[in-house]
Structure formats: C-alpha cells, structure tokens
Amino acid sequence: MSFNHWLTQRIEKTKQAGLYRGVRTMSSAAQPKMVVNGAEQIVFSSNNYLGLANDPILVEKAVNTLQEFGLGSSGSRLTTGNTEWHEKLEQRIASFKKSEAALLFSSGYLANIGVLSSLPEKGDVLLSDQLNHASIIDGCRLSKAETVIYQHTDMNSLELKLKETQAYTRRFIVTDGVFSMDGTIAPLVQIMKLANRYDAYVIVDDAHATGVLGEEGKGTSEHFGVSPDVIIGTLSKAIGVEGGFVTGSRVLVDFLLNHARTFIFQTAIPPVSCAAAYAAIDMIEKDKEKRKHLLRMIKVIKGNLDAMGFIVYGQDTPIIPVIIGDAETSVQFSKKLQENGIYAPAIRPPTVTDGKSRIRLTVTAAHTDSQIEHLLTSFKYIGRELEIIS
Ligand code: PMP
C-alpha cells in the first residue's frame, strides 16, 4: 500500500467516526469581531480573556523590541538564545506570581511536558484529575512515575487514591487551576490540605486562571491564598502573547533548567514575545477594571442562559460550557449561531463524554454589552428552534 493510500484510509476512519476536523481562517487576532471564512463574526471562543492580544500599547512595545532585537531568538536558552528580555520576563513572572523564581518555556504545553517528564522519578505516582488538559495527560505518559486518575474535583476520590498509593516513594497531585472544557475551578484549599495530610506535592496548571482569577489576576493561588509547589502557566491566553512558564522555588527552576528536555532542547521564545508579555503583566496587575468587566459579563451570560433553561456548567470563569447533548445537535446549534454572526464551536466526543456535547463559550473583557445581548437573544431563539429549551 502506498504511503498516502494508507493515510487516506486512516483519515477515512476519522471521518466515519465523525471526528474529522479542519481549521478556519481568521482575518486577524483582532478580536472579538473578525472575519471567519469570509463572514464577519463576533468571536466567543477565544482565550484572549483580557483583550490584550491586540492592545495598542503592547503592540507598540512589541514593535520597538522587534526593531531592536529582531525576529527569532536563534537558539536554546542554554546556548545562544538567552537575551536580557528572557531574564527580565522571568523575574517579572516570579514577582507577579509571588514565587522565588520562574522559568520560560516555548508554550504552556511544553512547560507541562517538561515538568511532568522530569520531576517525578521511578517509584513515584502522579494523581491526576480526570479532566486535566491534554498536555498534562501527555506529560504523565512521558513520566517515569505511574499515573492514577481521580474523579473530577472530587476530594473523596482524591483522598481514596492518596490512601491507596501510600507505598509509592512520592505522590504528586496534578490539576488544572481552571478546567478548559468544564470551566470548573480546582478546589485548591482542600487539595493543599489533603497534600499536607498525605505528604504529597501539588502541581497546578494555571493556564486559564492567570490574569483572570484573584484581585490582581495572579491566578488560583491568589484566589484561594495558597502556594502549590509548582505552578505552570501560559503567556498565550489572558497575557495575550505566546509562550509558557513555570514558577516555584529557585531550586525547582534550577532543576528544570538542567533536566526538563522541553526547556533544554527547544529554541527560546523570541525577545519580542518576552517584552510584550512583560508589559502585559504590568497591565494585568494594575488594571482591575478589565477583570471586573469580564466578571460582570460572565455573571450576566451565565445568569441569563440559566434562566432560559439551558444547562450551564462551570463556575465564574470566562469558560462557559452550554450543554446541548448529542453531537449532531451541537454542531447544528453552532452553525445557526454562525448564521447569526456568532462564532462559538461545538465541542464533541472524544474531547467531552458522550451525551455531553456542548457549545463552549468563552467571554473576554473586549466584548461589549450589546454583543452579549446579541449572544443571549440568539441563544434563546436557536434554543427554542432546536427544542433544547421551551
Ligand atoms: N494547559 C491548559 C489547561 C490549556 O488549556 C492549554 C491550552 N489550551 C495549555 C495548557 C497549553 O498552553 P499553550 O497554548 O501555551 O501551549
């Protein structure tokens, strides 16, 4: 069989299972309004939670740095890719997250892989929330430790697993801070208590919480007033740029710099990304208004959809999953939203469990009240048309 014939057959199977995906072309990252596949849409699926990806002050900062430092970093941090901007940003992230030190990675995905593949040793065990992000799952797969899954945010389940794994050398509890598909917040106070009681370490992926939760946007650690052993984050969501990071103790950073393969063997992020992220963090810490506006809109959307009779998952985070049920109706719902100028994709199995297909809305500080009103009117109309609400 030819190479391409073999792949065509495999793709055919993906199509038959209803899991075939394709990309859509966006006119720019200038959300929330953009042209998607030729038609103007209000985007309700972006991670640009504070609207910083196209903030004029940050763009100007980036242009200036670009002119001074050029495009790429040209090497890994340990060879020739380490500029003053990388170090300045690491110090800034550490002070923002109130930790001793920080280490940059090329993405949040690679930060998770780097931590989980290097930190736990053979004979250790990773206790991982059932709904953790794919990058945590992949990191666990690459780890020398074994992985045990506990039920989503269920502290009885976590405690049971902690009791069952006493024979392992070390236990690591690993969890998303805010879960990307359900919009739930990990109960970190209880997790830290259990970790303390059962002598386990805690690793939190704060990708969706950084910039959003906490008075100054520092994430779940600020929201709950806790200090996990390792916090992972991304520059690609509320911070509006691109790249990942890990914060914690100085010795943790020193360890990862020496052992995390996704740090050692990858080209450093461009200095321009560091400079823009640095300025974005300054903005996030000082400007509480964007966060307040965001929280107000989250409450308006959730309250209204709930009152209409929709099943809405999650807590007060920018991720608002509206459960539709079967995959086909969810796709239909999403198409009808698009016809109304709203872009919000359907999320289907295997990303979510069977019967829990949904429209996953994300709201950002850049959305306006009238855009939210249009969203809610469209949901009511389409929900009734597809007989999801009465
Ligand atoms: N963790 C979580 C919870 C995420 O949702 C994502 C991105 N979707 C990542 C990590 C990966 O971050 P990045 O996009 O920076 O690779």
UniProtKB/TrEMBL annotation:
Protein keywords: Acyltransferase, Biotin biosynthesis, Pyridoxal phosphate, Transferase
One Gene Ontology MF term: 8-amino-7-oxononanoate synthase activity
InterPro entries, A to Z: Aminotrans_II_pyridoxalP_BS (IPR001917), Aminotransferase_I/II_large (IPR004839), AON_synthase_class-II (IPR050087), AONS_Archaea/Proteobacteria (IPR004723), PyrdxlP-dep_Trfase (IPR015424), PyrdxlP-dep_Trfase_major (IPR015421), PyrdxlP-dep_Trfase_small (IPR015422)
Catalytic activity: 6-carboxyhexanoyl-[ACP] + L-alanine + H(+) = (8S)-8-amino-7-oxononanoate + holo-[ACP] + CO2
E.C. number: 2.3.1.47
Cofactor or coenzyme needed: pyridoxal 5'-phosphate
Cited SUPFAM superfamilies: PLP-dependent transferases
Enzyme superclass (EC): transferase
Residue ranges annotated for the Aminotransferase class I/classII large domain, each copy included: 40-378
Function: Catalyzes the decarboxylative condensation of pimeloyl-[acyl-carrier protein] and L-alanine to produce 8-amino-7-oxononanoate (AON), [acyl-carrier protein], and carbon dioxide.
Quaternary structure note: Homodimer.
UniProt record similarity statement: Belongs to the class-II pyridoxal-phosphate-dependent aminotransferase family. BioF subfamily.
Stored NCBIfam families: bioF (TIGR00858)
Protein name, UniProt field: 8-amino-7-ketopelargonate synthase
Higher taxonomy: Bacteria, Bacillati, Bacillota, Bacilli, Bacillales
Gene: bioF
